Amino acid sequence: MLTRLVMLRWNCTIVIYTLYTLDSVGDGGGRERMNLSIAHPKILRKVSRLSSFQFTQYSHSSNSLPLAAKHVVVCRRRVPFPASFSAAAFLSIAESAHLKRPFNNSVPAVLVFGDSTVDSGNNNYVKTTFKSNFPRTEGTSPTEFPRGATYVGIKEYVPPYLDPNLTLEDLMTGVCFASAGSGFDPLTAQLSGVISVQRQLEYFKEYKAKLEAAIGKARTKTLISKAAFLISAGTNDIVLNYFATPFRRETYNITSYQEFLLEHVKQFIQGLREEGATVIGLVGLPPIGCLPIVITVTSAEADGERRCNDSLSSIALDYNQKLQKMLEAMQNSSSSIIYYADIYKPLNDIIQRPSRYGFDNVNSGCCGSGLIETTFMCNPGTLVCANPSKYLFFDSVHPTQAAYSFLYQALRPTVDRVIKIHDL
C-alpha cells in the first residue's frame, strides 16, 4: 500500500491528511480511494517540531496532478474563525440586510441544486467529511450581505431539503438540494460520499410529492412552473475527479470528458423540465487553474512560484463555451427559459486586477496555510488570516464573502431577468 501523507504544524498542532491510498489487488492492478483523516497531536509529540508539510508523490499516469507541494510553511497566527463559505451561493448574497425586492410578484420559490457553492447544509445529514455545519463566531456575522433569497424578495435563507424541521412555508418558498463535493458525473459524488446530482433530482421529485399532498396538484404545478431553479456544479468533476483520480482518464481525454459532463447536464435539465420547471439558471465554471488548491499542486511541478495554471483555466473556459451553446439549443427546443450565469469573467477580472476590488491576496486562502485546506480542514479550531475581506478565497477552493459580493453584483442583471421573467 502506498500512502500520500501531508503533515502540518499549526501552532503546535500536527495534522496528518491521508489524501490518497492505493491498494494492491490480486491481478496486479490497483484500486484507488479517497480517504481523509486527522491524527491527534498527542500521538505525534515526537514530530511536534515539524513546521512545514511534505509528501510522497506517486503518479498513476503522466497527466495526473500531485496532491500537495513540498516545504510550505503553514504556521499562522490564531484569530477568530468566521463561518465556512462553502455554502455561499450567488443568490445568497443580498444587496443589503434591509433590501427587499418589491417588484418580485411572480417568483414564489427558489430551488437550488449542485455542489458546495450552494449547499446550505444537506451534507450535515450525510455521512461525509464534507460538512456545512461550522457556525459563525462572534464578530463575523454578516450585516451587509445576508445569506438566502433576500434580494429575490422571498426569504433570507434557503434551507437544506434534508433538514427534518422544515415547515410547509419552507417547502413552498424553496429549499436547497445541493451537496458539497458533488458534480454532474455520478462518480464525483461517489468519491466524496455525498449526494449526486442525479439523487438531488430524485429528492426534488420527493419534494414535489410532499407539496402535492399538502396543497394539491394544481397549486404545486403553478408553484413549480413559476419557481426559479439554480444549478451550480462542475468544478469538482474536473478538479477532484478527472485530474485527481485516474478513473475517468482511463476512458476519456479531456475533450470527451467535457462532452460526457455536458450530456449529464442536459439530462439533469431535461429531468427538471419534465417535473415542471420553466425558469432555470445554470452557473458556469470558474477559472479552475486559479483555485489555490490547483495552484498549490501544479506550481510544485513547475518552479514553485504561485500563479494560475492557464492550461487548466482554458479547459474551464472551453467547457463554458460548449455549455452555453448546448443551453441555447435546449432553449430553442422548448418553452422553458434557461439562463447561463458567467462567473469565469468576473472572477478572472478580480484575479487579474485585485487592487481594483480591494484584495491583497488572490492565490491562497484565508484558512490554515491557504494552500490545500477545505471542508473539515477549515473549522472553528483552524487558524485563519487576520482580515478575510482582503482575500479572494476563504479556503483553497471557495471565495470569501467579500468576493461573493462582487460576483453577485456581476450576476445581478441575470438575477433580475429571472425574477421578472413571468412579468414579461
UniProtKB/TrEMBL annotation:
<dbReference type="InterPro" id="IPR050592">
    <property type="entry name" value="GDSL_lipolytic_enzyme"/>
</dbReference>
<dbReference type="InterPro" id="IPR035669">
    <property type="entry name" value="SGNH_plant_lipase-like"/>
</dbReference>
<keyword id="KW-0732">Signal</keyword>
<dbReference type="InterPro" id="IPR036514">
    <property type="entry name" value="SGNH_hydro_sf"/>
</dbReference>
<comment type="similarity">
    <text>Belongs to the 'GDSL' lipolytic enzyme family.</text>
</comment>
<dbReference type="GO" id="GO:0016788">
    <property type="term" value="F:hydrolase activity, acting on ester bonds"/>
</dbReference>
<protein>
    <submittedName>
        <fullName>GDSL esterase/lipase</fullName>
    </submittedName>
</protein>
<dbReference type="Pfam" id="PF00657">
    <property type="entry name" value="Lipase_GDSL"/>
</dbReference>
<feature type="signal peptide">
    <location>
        <begin position="1"/>
        <end position="17"/>
    </location>
</feature>
<dbReference type="InterPro" id="IPR001087">
    <property type="entry name" value="GDSL"/>
</dbReference>
